[in-house]
Amino acid sequence: MAPATLSRPLTAGYNAKNNAKIAQNRIKALEKKVADLAEIAELLRKTAKNSQKLYREHIKHTAALTATGKDPREILRPYQPDLFNGDADKLQGFLTSLRSYQMYYLIQFTTKEL
């Protein structure tokens, strides 16, 4: 029975080394999970911040819509100017509205000749 008693310490040493490797692998796996969770938490923080920004914009938009009854983008959009009737007193107003209309719809008014 002497050989059996000699194999026991060898097995115990092997098990200890094996257990240490298993523990190290589990620690690495847990560290990776912690890093992944930290990344997810950061993404959630950014998403929450963006959500808050969009919510504030929505509140402003809703308040403007309630106050005026119109969409804020609609308020800024210039109307097409009426035809100029030759009245010199209305020339400045016509030119101003024409210029703002051209600036808003810039893509329709190019200076390139076809």
UniProtKB/TrEMBL annotation:
**Keywords tagged on the record:** Coiled coil
Name of the protein this chain belongs to = Uncharacterized protein
Which chain positions lie within coiled-coil regions?
A: 20-47
